[in-house]
Write a structure and sequence with these properties.
6-stranded mixed beta sheet, 295 residues, alpha/beta, 6 helices, Nitrilase/N-carbamoyl-D-aminoacid amidohydrolase, single chain, 14 strands
Length: 295
């Protein structure tokens, strides 16, 4: 007799989102804190660890000189090398926000490393507010990285406000989107309601049948508060980890079978949102020249 569970555990992954409080210009302190949290997540069985946006440098820069002084090359910089060493030691994957320098240009990036080193880099496509003074808009599109634990995509903060970001990842077969973020308060937010950012990622996970792991930061930096509430969302759109505290450093966890993202894309006998798209009315890949469809 053949078990009906055959093949059902092939993509089970424990996910950790590390909610930290980086301090701008204290790069060594920030790197050490990120490594401590990765070690803790690994000791609790995590195989995928997500960290916040610009978690090695801090966020609110006073000048371009400061932003450049806190940047580094990817993948050959100090921070990426340390994260890669931890990924190799603990046999896990890490997606984390980093201040990337390429020649005379800066990018607000997310680097993905695994047991065998650098997997890939995502550069924030949609820059928020004064980020435009320091960073270049991302020029790598929305890559999806094929790894032993599943197909990983990355977004950074404001990218989550654009449905195209998730749709292009899903169309390339992403199982999970790792969001490194520094969410700020939304005017008019009811403090007794879930954060607007969490509503957005839940909706995106639901309509694209992808998992989302969003690691936010906490604290106030040079007058700018951040809201925490990191969250891990199933491919159905419902939270399976978090939300975390709005003001404390902590790690949230969730167990997920990333293969469910592919299985659940067929909602019923008649409907599959990615297939049901009216490409006779709008372009199949939303006009992007950076991506190719998965199926």
């Amino acid at each position: 007799m053949t078990s009906d569970r055959k093949g059902r555990n092939e993509a089970e992954v424990k996910i950790a989102c590390c909610q930290t409080e980086p301090i701008v210009s204290e790069k060594q302190r920030n790197i050490e804190k990120s490594c401590e949290m990765i070690e803790e997540a690994a000791s609790n069985g995590a195989r995928l660890v997500v960290l916040p946006e610009l978690c090695n440098s801090g966020y609110v820069f006073e000048s371009r000189e400061e932003a450049f002084a806190l940047s580094e090359e990817v993948p050959n910089g100090e921070t990426t090398n340390l994260w890669a060493e931890l990924a190799a030691e603990h046999r896990l994957h890490i997606a984390a926000g980093i201040n990337e320098r390429e020649g005379d240009l800066l990018y607000n990036s997310s680097v993905v490393v695994g047991p065998n080193g650098h997997v890939g880099t995502f550069r924030k496509v949609h820059l928020w507010n004064e980020e435009n003074l320091f960073f270049e808009p991302g020029n790598l599109g929305f890559p999806v990285f094929k790894t032993p634990i599943g197909r990983l995509a990355c977004h950074i903060c404001y990218d989550s406000w654009f449905p195209e970001s998730y749709r292009l990842a899903a169309l390339q077969g992403a199982d999970i989107v790792c969001v490194s973020t520094n969410w700020v308060p939304i005017p008019g937010q009811d403090p007794d309601r879930e954060a607007m950012a969490n509503i957005l990622v839940m909706a995106a996970a639901h309509v694209n049948s992808v998992y989302v792991a969003a690691a936010d930061r906490v604290g106030t930096e040079r007058g700018q508060p951040f809201i925490g509430q990191s969250i891990i969302v199933s491919c159905t759109g419902w939270p399976i980890g978090g939300p975390a505290s709005p003001d404390k450093e902590e790690i949230i966890y969730a167990e997920a079978n990333l293969a469910d993202a592919r299985r659940k894309r067929n909602w019923n006998e008649y409907n599959q949102p990615l297939r049901d798209r009216r490409t006779d009315i709008y372009g199949e890949m939303l006009g992007s020249s950076h991506v190719r469809g998965w199926y």
